């Protein structure tokens, strides 16, 4: 059973910041790709940021320059630092892990967390 546990969501004003965390097991943490997706009400889920096992990073265009994905190897935890948040960033954010390499079409995810809500208002 794969566990991906997100935390750090909340309500923040436009221009504010949040840091999301995704804690998992060592085995899952060593997957080829880990990252974040989000789904706003009434919209399809979209890829936000991803980091590969060689530490290459991927971002969707709308968050480049504002969001940063990182990892803490000692804690088996992945983070998403979100700065200068905008109302359009409001969504449920999901942590994901994949056996395949990260890619720009966001097709790599195999397992998902339960999500953490981010509301910018």
Main sheet properties: 7 strands, mixed
Category from helices, strands and their pairing: mainly beta
Low-confidence stretches: none
Query: Which percent band covers the strand fraction?
Result: over 45%
Q: Specify the overall morphology.
A: globular
Helix content: under 10%
Please state the average pLDDT score: 95
SSE topology string:
EEEHEEEEEEEE
Count, helices: 1
Radius of gyration from the CA trace?
13 Å
List how many beta strands DSSP finds. Answer: 11
Describe the protein in words.
This protein has one helix at 26-29, and strands at 4-7, 10-12, 18-24, 33-39, 46-52, 57-59, 67-72, 77-82, 91-98, 111-112, 116-120. The chain is mainly beta and 121 residues long. Strands 2, 4, 5, 6, 9, 10 and 11 form a seven-stranded mixed sheet that branches. The protein has a four-stranded antiparallel sheet with strand order 1-3-8-7. Strand 7 and strand 8 form a beta hairpin. It is globular and about 35 Å long. The model has no long low-confidence stretch (mean pLDDT 95).
Give a summary of the structure in a few sentences.
The chain has 121 residues and is mainly beta. The chain contains 1 helix and 11 strands.
Task: Give the SSE layout.
Elements: E1 4-7, E2 10-12, E3 18-24, H1 26-29, E4 33-39, E5 46-52, E6 57-59, E7 67-72, E8 77-82, E9 91-98, E10 111-112, E11 116-120
Parallel strand pairs: 2-11
Antiparallel strand pairs: 1-3, 3-8, 4-5, 4-9, 5-6, 7-8, 9-10, 9-11
């Amino acid at each position: 059973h794969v566990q991906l546990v997100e935390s750090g969501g909340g309500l923040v004003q436009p221009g504010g910041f949040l840091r999301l965390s995704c804690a998992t097991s060592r085995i899952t943490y060593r997957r080829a790709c880990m990252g974040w997706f989000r789904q706003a009400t009434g919209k399809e889920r979209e890829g936000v940021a991803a980091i590969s096992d060689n530490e290459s990073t991927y971002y969707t265009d709308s968050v480049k320059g504002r969001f940063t994905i990182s990892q803490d190897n000692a804690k088996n935890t992945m983070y998403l630092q979100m700065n200068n948040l905008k109302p359009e960033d409001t969504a449920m954010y999901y942590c994901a892990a994949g056996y395949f390499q990260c890619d720009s079409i966001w097709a790599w995810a195999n397992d998902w967390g339960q999500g953490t809500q981010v509301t910018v208002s």
